[in-house]
Amino acid sequence: MKTLFIIGNGFDCYGHQLKTKYTDFRRYIINNYPDYNYDYDGLIESTLMPDGDNGYDMDALVGSIISLMDNCAKPDWSELEASAGTIYASSILDRNEQYFHDVDWNDDDKAIRDAIYNNEDISNDITNGFIQLKQLFEEWAFEDLSKIDFSNVKKIRKPSFKDAVFLNFNYTSTLEDLYDIPVKNICHIHGFAKDNQSYILFGHGEEESIHVPADYFGANEAFDSLVHYMRKDTYGAIKRNQKFFNSLTKINKIYSYGFSFSDVDMCYIEEISTRINPQKVRWYFNSHDWKNNKDNIEKIKAYGYKVRKCGRW
User: Is this structure's pTM higher than 0.85?
Assistant: First the structure.
């Protein structure tokens, strides 16, 4: 195999008009929780369910998640993953600051303990609720994206897929079901919606922690855990797919379509570049990306690749 295709969401949502945008994820949430309370401004707190687990008022929680992300991730949710870290956590903290107790270290021991315990309990309740953004995303992948009907989806004009391998960032089966690409030639690096045992990777790439005011002592751990939980495990994805990356040593052509080249995903390009000599590889951008994403072209040039426009798609 001497050709590698890197496939991103633009291949699905723009190339094939599939409903795979973050706005479609937002619509999925609303369809599943039609009574969601967008204007809810109370405390998100759990209640003990009959089975012993903690549960939430999902209409209030979902409404809060949607309204927060409408503010954090731009109106079309285009920055959903990038906003899922400290921006998301800080917005949750700001929205609930009235429920935290200031810890006054000059108070008596009981008052200090009570304030800290309150902050721990409140922050755990809140963050355990808001991590469900990630769980909702996984549900969308397994329930909606796994059931796409390709019978009326038109193939696009493209380079030859023969004798190629694919690094696929999409959760869908477009390559398998529409183009009959063998599964063994595809690496679903962020998970595969048709495999319910698959890891569905979603999240931000930040390394820093959230700043929690010192007065809210006791809340730090829960909010740091939220930021950590919402982080995309790219290291784990690379580790699980070492066999695929090790197979790329003879690649001399790379085609990309719809890949965002976001900072959190550039580690995969770095991993590829350690297996080959970029100066001996031609990288072809599809026509839309060549015209509209000059910054991405410069990112690839910086690795030493010979960059070209592909007029065949």
Answer: yes
